[in-house]
Amino acid sequence: MRSLQRTSPVFPAPRRDLVRDSSLVWLASGIVGVSFGAISVAGGLPVWVPVVMSLLVYAGSAQFSAVGVLLAGGGPLAAAATGLLLNTRTAAFGLAVADVIGRGWAARLLGAHLVTDETVAFTLAQSDPLRRRAAFWISGLGLFAVWNVGVLAGALAGGALGDTARYGLDAAFPAVLVALVLPALRTDARVRRCALLGAALALAVTPAVPAGVPVLLALAGLALYGRKEAPA
Amino acid sequence: MNATVALILALAAGTYAFRLVGPALHGRVRLPQRVHDLAAAGAVVLLAALLATGALTENGTFAGWARPGGVLVAAALAWRRAPFVVVVLGAAVTTAVLRAVVPGAA
User: Where do the TM regions start and end (chain A) (predicted)?
Assistant: First the structure.
């Protein structure tokens, strides 16, 4: 008799360590989501605005910027433009993880919506293709759920949370990126060169240009990538 | 349709279109190996730039010392191959302690 045990090619068995590492990102993002909901409602927006925006836009930095522009009286057009400018980077991220998402149309359409900074970093930090696929879906689906629940909770709670900066949570996102990007920077000298130039460019122009532009300008760092692998 | 609904829909549609470019093209257009390499390197470059600006700046100006202090601790822990949990919590705790203890650390 043949074994009934089967493995799905699309959703490999979840790996416990991937879930464990993801859950920390979920926790930090959930708390940021709570503060997004709370800030939006405290600023005078109705509860449905942050909640619907989180479900449909699902991009933390763009949402904060769009709501910030709205609450500062900049108008919906400026708010949309700022958010879109910040999200142009997701096109590059989508290209980078396209082979991980797979070829089925349901996977492509759903996977595209789950492309965020955190999930892409978490995915690319894994070594083999199967782990990458598992990491993408575990991180992506979990983050989507936690982010939206967090925003709803924050919007309903309003200003009761207090200042989240007190807990040092604003350092968690860059720290997540440090943990995920450092191995790639450490092993690949070409990528390291490009990343250092890109980060320096982004920092240099930050005071002078609108939000979203510095990170895009960082791509100019790819000029140092070179045509071929340097001989060892 | 009011202006806020239009804003949300425009931002959502534009963002989804950006995100869909890569997955939609995958397997249909044969991209040269070099484009794949550059996309992978570009993703790391973007993440490193987000890391640098996220660690050091807030609304276009310096974020104060507490946050980069925490991120620096995270970098040291990650360099020594500490577990992911330790790296992230190390940053948050360091930043929170710096804010609570050092006046003006922001």
Answer: 24-49, 55-79, 134-161, 167-185, 197-225
SS3 content of chain B, % helix, strand, coil (to 5): 75, 5, 20
Q: Where are the beta strands (DSSP E) in chain A?
A: none
Averaging pLDDT over each range in A4-18, A123-137, A165-179, B30-44, which range is the top one? Answer: A123-137
| Number of Cβ atoms within 10 Å of the Cβ of B17 | 15
Instruction: Please indicate whether, in this complex, the C-beta atoms of B22 and A178 are within 8 angstroms of each other.
Output: no
The Cα-based distances of A6 to A11, A13, A17, A45, A106 in angstroms read: 11, 10, 22, 49, 21
d(CA A179, CA A21): 11
Q: Which two tokens stand for residue A72?
A: 């500062």
Interface of A with B in 38-97 (CB under 8 A): 45, 49, 52-53, 56-59, 62, 66, 70, 75-77, 79-80, 83-84, 87-97
User: B48-76 as b/e, with b when 16 or more CB fall inside 10 Å?
Assistant: bbbbbbbbbbeeeeebbbbbbbbbbbbbe
A58: tokens are 């699902």
Yes or no: say if B51 and A174 are a contact pair by the CB < 8 Å rule. yes
Confidence of residue A3 (pLDDT cuts 50, 70, 90): very low
ipTM of predicted assembly, 2 dp: 0.86
CA distance A153 to A193: 42
Q: Output the pLDDT for position B55.
A: 93
**C-alpha to C-alpha distance for A69 and A46, rounded to whole angstroms:** 16
Q: Which two tokens stand for residue A113?
A: 């919506």
For chain B, the structural domain boundaries read 1-30, 33-106
Contacts of B102 in chain A (CB under 8 A): none
Dist CA B63 CA B106 (whole Å): 8
